[in-house]
Specification:
With 364 residues, this protein is of the alpha/beta class. Helices cover 29% and strands 23% of the residues. The chain has two domains: 121 residues, Lyase, Ornithine Decarboxylase, Chain A, domain 1; 222 residues, TIM Barrel. Strands 1, 10, 11, 12, 13, 14, 15, 16 and 17 form a nine-stranded mixed beta sheet that branches. Strands 2-9-8-7-6-5-4-3 form an eight-stranded parallel beta sheet. The longest helix is centred in the middle third of the chain and has 20 residues.
Length: 364
């Protein structure tokens, strides 16, 4: 199959770029003796998780139990659920996963720890646990200090739970340039102090898990962190590029669209809207746009209905016709992938593979 035969809208993955991204991060992790446990939230495809592990990743990361169930197809040696698992039915399903591979769960409450322990005891399995603390995003995670130590002690005393260490997500670091320096330096100062307190309390510390794509290539500066969990790096997107965490040449994913209308002067309509791109705005910017047109950089995707993309082409020095195809780097590829049934892996003009998005919509 040729790219010209793909029905639109469709997500197209440049395999050469993707493979380069994967190799670069695998080499970086190896160079700095960091374990790589990539988050599969970006691609949601077992075959790509397997490719990451074949390049040296120690396991994979997921958010939801449904994703964990799907990712068993990648045969991971370890599966980290970086999200508190709350509710008996979810816990029962997680225990089934734990019968098939080593499972580690990140959590931030004594309630979650006790529920997890009860489920593990009933299922007669052992679950690894990381105590989660907040480093600035103010989303999940207890405060460092006494709150974190209390959580660690509770986990350590729960039957069938194996306390592995601590975890954090530096999602407040939203750039990879000099503007991120204060946040990186603060984190580099904070983590060794947390580790020292944890060790003085006599708590196990096999894993110190952190990392993100924007922070990715600065991870070695965070003393004490033993593993990283980037996700977006496999494809990258306009947000990652805008944060200066990658270059335009590192964006492997584009959304292939077709022009369906040129009826309004200075505007074209493409066959992708909010159900194709998502409505995520560009990070770190007041710009109102939803993607970057690789074929027409001055074009601006200014507005979307569910199935229509409104593109301002007044500043573009070319003519457009109904039926023309345009490729767009979306703002946020993770959400876009979740909207599509398959991804097309291409090399040059040839479609080499089509991957079903197996973990699509796995929110439970």
């Amino acid at each position: 199959m040729r790219i010209s035969e793909i029905e639109t809208p469709a997500i197209v993955i440049d395999l050469d770029i993707m493979e380069r991204n994967l190799q670069r991060v695998a080499d970086y992790a190896r160079k700095y003796d960091l374990k790589l446990r990539p988050h599969t939230k970006t691609h949601k495809i077992p075959a790509l998780a397997r490719k990451q592990m074949d390049l040296g990743a120690v396991g994979i990361t997921v958010a939801k139990v449904g994703e964990a169930e799907v990712m068993l197809a990648a045969n991971p040696p370890e599966l980290y659920v970086a999200y508190p698992v709350i509710g008996q039915r979810k816990l029962d399903r997680l225990m089934q996963v734990a019968r098939q591979t080593k499972v580690i769960v990140g959590l931030d409450s004594q309630f979650a720890a006790r529920q997890l322990s009860d489920a593990a005891r009933q299922a007669q399995v052992e679950i690894g646990v990381l105590a989660e603390f907040d480093v600035g995003l103010n989303r999940v995670g207890v405060n460092p200090g006494e709150d974190l130590l209390a959580l660690g002690k509770t986990i350590a005393n729960q039957p069938r739970l194996r306390l592995e260490g601590i975890t954090f997500y530096p999602g407040h670091v939203k750039a990879a340039d000099e503007s991120a320096e204060p946040a990186i330096e603060a984190l580099a100062d904070l983590l060794p102090r947390i580790i020292s307190q944890w060790k003085r309390a006599g708590l196990p510390l096999n894993i110190v898990s952190g990392g993100s794509t924007p922070l990715l290539f600065q991870s070695h500066r965070i003393e004490g962190m033993t593993e990283i969990r980037p996700g977006t790096y496999i494809f990258n997107d306009k947000n990652t590029w805008n944060m200066q965490a990658c270059g335009l040449e590192d964006c492997a994913a584009t959304i292939l669209t077709t022009i369906v209308s040129t009826a309004r002067p200075g505007q074209i309509i493409i066959d992708g809207g909010s159900k194709t791109f998502s409505s995520d705005r560009l990070a770190n910017s007041s710009e109102v746009s939803f993607g970057y047109f690789t074929d027409a950089p001055q074009a601006v995707l200014t507005k979307m209905n569910e199935e229509h993309g409104f593109v301002d082409v007044r500043n573009v020095n070319r003519e457009f016709s109904v039926g023309d195809r345009l490729r767009v780097i979306p703002n946020h590829i993770c959400v876009a992938v979740n909207l599509h049934e398959q991804l097309y892996g291409v090399r040059g003009d040839t479609v080499e593979c089509v991957w079903p998005v197996a973990a699509r919509g796995k929110l439970q």
